[in-house]
């Protein structure tokens, strides 16, 4: 057994014009594949710990020290990207009534949620991710992480995530991260977010 790169759930050009096909090819076939390869190389050194990355990253101290950072980076990279592909769709979707109500209750309105998420994505310095999570109290929260760190390691359940590494947007958006963040909101798969929220809450 080994971790395998999942196929995209849509064609490489399906998210055009918001996310371009060249970026999707590079991002999925090269970057994500590299995280998979490096995670497998780390796991092979310690077959006794298994391959349940979510469980391992939920308790990073349980990971053998000699592969801990490699798994945080590459196991996290795999989990984050596998989730990210599913969080986008070319179809028009909207949050369920229940999620929409939770967003309104937490942030005031959808627009205020979008502003908070956009701020988290914009201000994450260097490489990382912006997230909407269900926190330990069962509440929605906008947060961000550095590098490939997953909110799972902080006891939070990610239900929406945006990759703000330059590799995610530089081909099309160059240095203009805010335009990429805005475009992301046109391709969010709210059906998937709803599904994750229902499990996480
Ligand atoms: Fe990425």
TrEMBL record:
<dbReference type="InterPro" id="IPR036314">
    <property type="entry name" value="SOD_C_sf"/>
</dbReference>
<comment type="function">
    <text>Destroys radicals which are normally produced within the cells and which are toxic to biological systems.</text>
</comment>
<dbReference type="InterPro" id="IPR001189">
    <property type="entry name" value="Mn/Fe_SOD"/>
</dbReference>
<keyword id="KW-0560">Oxidoreductase</keyword>
<dbReference type="InterPro" id="IPR019833">
    <property type="entry name" value="Mn/Fe_SOD_BS"/>
</dbReference>
<dbReference type="GO" id="GO:0004784">
    <property type="term" value="F:superoxide dismutase activity"/>
</dbReference>
<feature type="domain" description="Manganese/iron superoxide dismutase C-terminal">
    <location>
        <begin position="95"/>
        <end position="195"/>
    </location>
</feature>
<dbReference type="InterPro" id="IPR019831">
    <property type="entry name" value="Mn/Fe_SOD_N"/>
</dbReference>
<feature type="domain" description="Manganese/iron superoxide dismutase N-terminal">
    <location>
        <begin position="5"/>
        <end position="88"/>
    </location>
</feature>
<feature type="binding site">
    <location>
        <position position="167"/>
    </location>
    <ligand>
        <name>Mn(2+)</name>
    </ligand>
</feature>
<dbReference type="InterPro" id="IPR019832">
    <property type="entry name" value="Mn/Fe_SOD_C"/>
</dbReference>
<dbReference type="InterPro" id="IPR036324">
    <property type="entry name" value="Mn/Fe_SOD_N_sf"/>
</dbReference>
<dbReference type="GO" id="GO:0005737">
    <property type="term" value="C:cytoplasm"/>
</dbReference>
<dbReference type="GO" id="GO:0046872">
    <property type="term" value="F:metal ion binding"/>
</dbReference>
<comment type="similarity">
    <text>Belongs to the iron/manganese superoxide dismutase family.</text>
</comment>
<keyword id="KW-0479">Metal-binding</keyword>
<protein>
    <recommendedName>
        <fullName>Superoxide dismutase</fullName>
        <ecNumber>1.15.1.1</ecNumber>
    </recommendedName>
</protein>
<dbReference type="Pfam" id="PF02777">
    <property type="entry name" value="Sod_Fe_C"/>
</dbReference>
<feature type="binding site">
    <location>
        <position position="81"/>
    </location>
    <ligand>
        <name>Mn(2+)</name>
    </ligand>
</feature>
<feature type="binding site">
    <location>
        <position position="27"/>
    </location>
    <ligand>
        <name>Mn(2+)</name>
    </ligand>
</feature>
<feature type="binding site">
    <location>
        <position position="163"/>
    </location>
    <ligand>
        <name>Mn(2+)</name>
    </ligand>
</feature>
<dbReference type="Pfam" id="PF00081">
    <property type="entry name" value="Sod_Fe_N"/>
</dbReference>
């Amino acid at each position: 057994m080994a971790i395998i790169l999942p196929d995209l759930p849509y064609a490489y050009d399906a998210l055009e014009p918001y996310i371009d096909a060249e970026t999707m090819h590079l991002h999925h076939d090269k970057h994500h594949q590299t995280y998979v390869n490096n995670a497998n190389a780390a796991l092979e050194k310690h077959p006794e710990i298994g391959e349940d990355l979510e469980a391992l990253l939920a308790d990073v101290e349980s990971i053998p020290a000699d592969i801990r950072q490699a798994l945080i980076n590459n196991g996290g990279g795999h989990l984050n990207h596998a989730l990210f592909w599913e969080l986008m769709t070319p179809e028009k979707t909207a949050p369920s009534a229940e999620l929409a109500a939770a967003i309104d209750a937490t942030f005031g309105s959808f627009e205020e949620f979008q502003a908070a998420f956009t701020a988290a994505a914009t201000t994450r310095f260097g490489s990382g991710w912006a997230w909407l999570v269900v926190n330990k109290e069962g509440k929605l929260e906008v947060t961000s992480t550095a590098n490939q760190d997953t909110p799972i390691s902080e006891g939070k359940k990610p239900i929406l995530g945006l990759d703000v590494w330059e590799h995610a947007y530089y081909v099309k958006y160059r240095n203009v991260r805010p335009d990429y963040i805005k475009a992301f909101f046109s391709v969010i798969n709210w059906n998937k977010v709803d599904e994750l929220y229902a499990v996480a809450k």
